[in-house]
Known about the structure:
The structure holds two protein chains of two kinds. By secondary structure, chain A is α/β, with parallel strands linked by helices. In chain A, 31% of the residues lie in helices and 17% in strands. Chain A starts with 8 loop residues before the first strand and ends in a 9-residue tail after the last helix. Chain B has two domains: 5-276, Aconitase, domain 3, CATH 3.30.499; 286-468, Aconitase, domain 3 (2-Layer Sandwich). Helix content of chain B is 33%, strand content 17%. Chain B has a five-stranded parallel beta sheet with strand order 5-4-3-6-7. The longest helix of chain B is centred in the N-terminal third of the chain and has 17 residues, at 77-93. At the A-B interface, α4, α6, α7 and α8 of A face β1, α2, α3, α5 and β8 of B.
Amino acid sequence: MSTLIRITRVAGRPIPLRGNDIDTDQVIPARFMKAVTFDGLGQYAFYDVRFDAQGHAKGHVMDEPRYQAKGPRVAVVNKNFGCGSSREHAPQALLRWGIKAIVGESFADIFFGNCVALGIPCVGASESDVAALMAAVEEDPAHELSIDIEALGATYCGRTYPITLPAGARMQLLEGSWDATRILLQAEEQVRATASRLPYVRRFAR
Amino acid sequence: MGKSLLDKVWDAHTVRELPSGQTQLFIGLHLVHEVTSPQAFQMMREQGLKLAFPERTFATVDHIIPTDTRQRPYSDAQAEGMMSAIERNCRELGIRFFDVSTGRQGIVHVLGPELGLTQPGITVACGDSHTSTHGALGAVAFGIGTSQVRDVLASQCLAIARPKVRRIAVDGALGAGVYAKDVILHIIRRLGVKGGVGYAYEYGGAVLERMTMEERMTVCNMSIEGGARLGYVNPDATTFDYLRGREFAPAAEDFDAAAAWWRSMASDADASYHDVVRLDGAQIAPTVTWGINPGQAIGVDEAVPPPEAFPADERAVAEDAYAYMDLKPRTPIRGTRIDVAFIGSCTNGRLSDLREAAGVARLGHVAPHVKALVVPGSQAVARAAEAEGLHEVFKKAGFEWRLPGCSMCLAMNPDKLVGRQICASSSNRNFKGRQGSPSGRTLLMSPAMVAAAALEGAVVDVRDMLHEHPSDDHGDKR
């Protein structure tokens, strides 16, 4: 069983991924899911947006020289990021590319939950703050973007933007309970009791 | 104030409230397929976890399976590897696996209802976003990620927050040639692809009440395309009639008790909702997507909308869509030439879908430049369709009749678009590259509209085609 890892602050060089309704088919095309592990998915993140049919880079922001950096990365996105397919391969690919946190206007439900389960905070910010943050990053991307889960602020180049995170997800990250398996297994007796009360589990016996 | 079905099911399945404010929710049915499960099984091995409720876990293979031959090993070594993995995982953990040899293989969301595994008032989870389909029977059904697949395997529970509930009432009646697919495309067009984030959609109103179970499945299937993780219809006599006699449905002597409980789980007449949306069924036309998300949809008699038709923050996506689709604003969608026609998927791969498409296929022959595929949703659907001779109708009209699977909905098997091909598709997503070519294009529509487009070689209004052949009995009787 994994040990508790509390996530209170994530910092890294920023990567802006502009656009509303970016779906998980874009994040990781289905053909790269034909594998029994998540290993190696990082190189395929946004593959068809980044590379042409011959595998040549198309000049996507992730391949621009000024956005190349070592260490953890923090993505900045717009509305409804991660919509569509429930594939956990999407956050797994982003994580393996280096993205450890995402700040954006809004996130799709399943993607958000998948990210929490991997310890990737997806924090919300207002449309105007995301616009300002993206502009600041695009002007000079060579600084660290810091996401403070406790104080609920995103700081870049000395300016702090207020961020939001649903209370449950925030608590899971701060307490290190984002990997839910351990918690869920603590209530085995209650699970059996709940099941035994359900008429269909009892096969509708009276 | 009464309770909604969502609230009743949630309360009945609550194991406990977690400190995070989420609920530990018991899952009554866990469906597993080959693509999103291998890593979950691997995590279980690494963490020494055991399968909690083998009798509540069922598996099949759908995403990667070829539809032209079932010869093993598959020509695609990666697909063969995934198939071998799920076979081994199911064998080792004692999970019932509906593979091809059982005669029950199919798309996981076709199979659950048709076997009677999906029932009203239960919770369902599956590592696939279209799990919302099962809500058609009055189940609360979640699409989940692979880490959550592991959680459900190990604990039969999810840690999850209760969604808000929006009731969407479609009143009145649908016109002839207008189908369930048009209803859900219209709903997404009206409420947007992110309008449902944080919500469960409860579909109701006279149109939904009159729908068959298969039609309700089509509607619930695409809830996720509107941003809603869950969608459901309250169980009623249509639901009970559908379930009676199915393999895993309650036996005859228990059926009345089951139906009484199912009925009790339906939303109360005075249930409270976060909000209510009313739509008029008579206003819904055969609907076609023109863009790169399912909300970019118009009636078949409309033109591609201009940028100014969109709110400011949707214009960039619209501009992206014009360029990707190579469709100009104000161009009528009717007449858009297609290269491929795909009938199938968890949205529209059931017997009634194939009947509706065959009703149109009977009227002519696939245009010479069009490749047309019909892929039944399951082996049971294929058997039933063949018993009616639908496969002969399709083949005679120039369609290929394939073996069951997800096929060209997401093209994880050999069925793929090539280059910039445009596909009229009865599937659920028109995302860039969705159908297997990174530059391929998708026009979503009903199976009858796909069949009509296949014959014409271009997008047409199926109502015109049906109107020219009024003697054929495939008009809409609703």
